[in-house]
Amino acid sequence: MPTEMGIWRIDGHQPHRLRPSAMPLESQLEDFLAKDPSLLGDRLLVVGRQVRTPYNKFIDLLAIDAEGTLHVLELKRDKTPREVVAQVLDYGSWVSTLERDEIIDLASHHLREPFEPVFDRTFGGPVPDEFTNDIQLTVVASSLDPSSERIVTYLRDFGVPINAVFFSFVEDDGRQYLARSWFATEDPSEATPAGGSRRTKQAKWNGQDWYVNFGEGDSRVWEDGRKYGFISAGGGEWYSRTLRNLPVDARVNVYLPQKGYVAVGTTLRDAARVDQAEVLHDGRWQLLTELPTEGSYRHEGIDDGTDRAEYVVPVEWEVAVPAHQAYREPGLFASQHSACKLRQDFTLKKLAEHFDLDRTN
User: Fold this and answer.
1) pLDDT beyond 60 at 240
2) Which of 4, 44, 156, 187 could form a Cys-Cys staple with 63, CB 3.0–4.6 A?
3) Nearest to residue 221, comparing CAs of 256, 267, 269?
4) Cα–Cα distance for residue pair 341/90, rounded to 1 Å
5) Last residue of a domain, one of 147, 167, 202
6) Residue 361 lies in a domain
């Protein structure tokens, strides 16, 4: 049984309980949730309403959370217990087959603007590279009969991520209130699908573009990288490892933390320790340590036996601008990793437009 939600108005020192209205609320719930899905408790972004499935059925609301998990929200209305549960399971089985690009297209169509900046505004960060293949199924109702409760409990016991949420409507002294309670007391997002492992919908990679985080500081200055043609990372194995994985001829899209994208270029050699690294400057290969640089490219504790050295990758720039001209807007991909595959078509398209790049290859 769900936990009952009680509401009292305090009249002086006397509590006065407010009773839920008999008003047929479920006819309005879809509008309420479409406008503010946070009524369910978690921050969600609605990416579809009355979404048509290939079977000529319509999902009431489809939403996504910050982790890329899709939420199927189905209102009970006048359906029987078996109908509403069967329906939400059927919708979940179809939604789980959607590819990442299909989800983004569906969301952009519903939102009537590109999905990526809306996601960024909603969750305060870019769209993740991977959407989880886990689906959260939620039955929305003003009440649930014992039969539905038994079915939901049985399915949850077998790892099906299904729950029910109840909304009560209360009216008092000209004001209207909504009270919410969940059927299952635990966090519904903790349900683990049968089979255990967590699958993901990963964006396709074009095999060429990489994201590089060029962290500025006393030991590393972007103007050096722009002038002499290189990217670098160090101060610990976690920072340098991903940079060292960059292949030759990779196209790197360089990002300055808190500032934006500043360059696109092609890697010329594998990463090398800064004391051995050469860059192509003035038409010839030169040791970076022999060039005048603003950054030191040395890190505290570098001689303690651990690999804290700075690693350098020489790059031929297609475009490279000063830090004050960095390009940034909501929805662009960003990561703390020094280097990773850049899979987001939205970011690649925006960079090509901003820097007037040829992205045909």
Assistant:
1) yes
2) 44
3) 256
4) 35
5) 202
6) no
If asked whether residues 22 and 146 sit together in one domain, one would say yes
- Residue where one domain finishes, among candidates 202, 229, 244: 202
102 has pLDDT over 70: yes
Residue 47's pLDDT band, with cuts at 50, 70 and 90, is very high
Calpha distance 110→218 (Å, rounded)? 46
Number of domains in the chain: 2
Can you give the residue range of the structural domain that contains 42? 7-202
Q: Write down the residue that tokens 């209130």 correspond to.
A: 177
38 plus 167 within the same structural domain: yes
Ranked by mean pLDDT, the top range of 142-156, 254-268, 299-313 is 254-268
Tokens of 62: 């489809």
Residues 245 and 119 placed together within one structural domain of the fold? no
Q: Where in 214-308 does DSSP place strands (E)?
A: 230-233, 251-256, 260-267, 272-273, 278-281, 284-287
| Pick from 67, 121, 68, 122: nearest CA to 99 | 68
From 175, 96, 100, 174, select the one nearest 136 (Cα to Cα): 96
Residue type, 113: E
Q: Is the pTM of this model over 0.85?
A: no
Task: Read off the CATH number of the domain in which 328 is found.
Answer: 3.10.590
314-345 pLDDT tens trace: 999 999 999 999 999 999 999 888 999 998 88
